[in-house]
Design brief:
Elements lengths: L5 H20 L7 H9 L3 H19 L6 H31 L5 H14 L7 H22 L1 H23 L13 H4 L5 H12 L1 H9 L2 H22 L8 H21 L5 H8 L1 H21 L8 H22 L19
């Protein structure tokens, strides 16, 4: 790789903060205007993570002196993601059993763990891992396609993604009923629903210089488009009560506009980066995986202390958000030198594959 793209450190940190915002504001979106606004503004988070993944993965490929084999690619990428996925799924499954005071026998527990690993249901944020695993599995085929015909590649994947978003949206608002399948989670994690974002990232990496010149010269125009897409998303979420949905056309449009707008801003104002953003970016995976346990602790501790109203209202929501971010980041910083931190998704001492 020709060098670390520092603008993507800022984008990854922004996406990390945004995804925490989604989870903190989820309980407020249906009860207050402030909660709804905050929840919708940060809805770009997961699509942005996927776009960044596609971009950096393909950028590394096209700028490397020697291309790695498919087997080495799979060993390297899945060695990085599977261990954290398995261990955090195990951890959250145990936490759930403890909170529910239900400790099944070993056979039942292992069956539940297997289902959680297959569908990403160990915790509400682990579905993202299933999506990324699918993207990695498909990556060699996607790479062969984009190298032959980049235009048909990006148009086809974005069209497929948009079609899936429309179908999910119609189901959400009651205009169409999706057929029963082996597990309802398939409608959240199946790759066609997200592959357009991954493909867009790959496409932008291939034409990075040309795209960056367009973005850097027009951040004001991109900002206007971003504001319009946000207004459309807010209108849609309010009028159809679909604000909790992760898959619908307005989110797709808003997420892409958000990526382009924030990318243009980082090119214009934040290209040099800072040591703190570099560190946060490198640890963003671990922050993403660990923050729900911090959020759960903060939500439960106020009940234990008899101050249940502490998190009520917009002020309580923002305080809960800030504390979740600060405690999670501080915890990750405290374990930053742990030699096996890579097993949990952090960056410290990592094995060579």
């Amino acid at each position: 790789m020709q060098g670390r793209l520092q603008v993507f450190d800022l984008l990854r940190v922004l996406a990390t903060l945004a995804v925490i915002g989604i989870h903190v504001s989820a309980d407020y979106a249906g009860t207050s205007a402030g909660g709804l606004l905050f929840n919708q503004v940060v809805r770009f988070a997961v699509p942005m993570f996927i776009i960044i993944s596609g971009f950096l993965l393909y950028y590394q490929d096209i700028t490397s002196v020697c291309r790695e084999s498919v087997g080495r690619f799979y060993r390297k990428r899945f060695g990085k993601i599977l261990w954290p996925y398995v261990l955090w799924t195990l951890f959250y499954t145990l936490v759930t059993q403890y909170l529910l005071h239900t400790w099944p026998d070993t056979r039942v527990f292992m069956a539940a763990l297997g289902r959680h690993l297959l569908w990403g249901t160990g915790a509400y944020h682990l579905y993202f891992m299933v999506i990324i695993i699918q993207c990695y599995l498909l990556y060699p085929l996607l790479k062969a396609w984009i190298e032959k015909h980049a235009v048909s590649f990006v148009i086809s994947l974005l069209s497929l993604c948009l079609f899936c978003q429309v179908v999910l949206y119609l189901n959400t608002i009651g205009r169409y009923s999706l057929p029963g399948v082996v597990h309802p989670q398939v409608y959240l994690v199946a790759f066609p629903i997200w592959i357009g974002y991954f493909g867009l990232g790959m496409y932008m990496a291939q034409f990075r210089t040309r795209i960056e010149s367009v973005l850097a010269s027009g951040s004001g125009r991109w900002g206007m488009l971003w504001a319009i897409s946000l207004a459309f998303l807010l209108w849609d979420g309010h009028t159809t009560a679909s604000y909790a949905s992760s898959g619908k056309p307005t989110i797709m449009i808003y997420a892409i506009m958000s990526f382009l707008f924030f990318y243009s801003l980082t090119l214009k104002y934040g290209g040099k980066g800072l040591p703190i953003t570099d560190w946060l970016s490198r640890q963003s995976f671990l922050i993403y995986l660990s923050h729900p346990v911090v959020l759960l602790f903060l939500q439960r501790i106020v009940h234990k202390m008899g101050v249940s109203a502490a998190w009520e209202g917009p002020g309580g929501m923002m305080m809960l958000y800030v504390l979740t971010v600060v405690i999670t980041v501080t915890g990750v910083y405290c374990v930053r030198h742990a030699p096996l931190l890579w097993l949990l998704g952090g960056q410290s001492y990592r094995p060579r594959y």
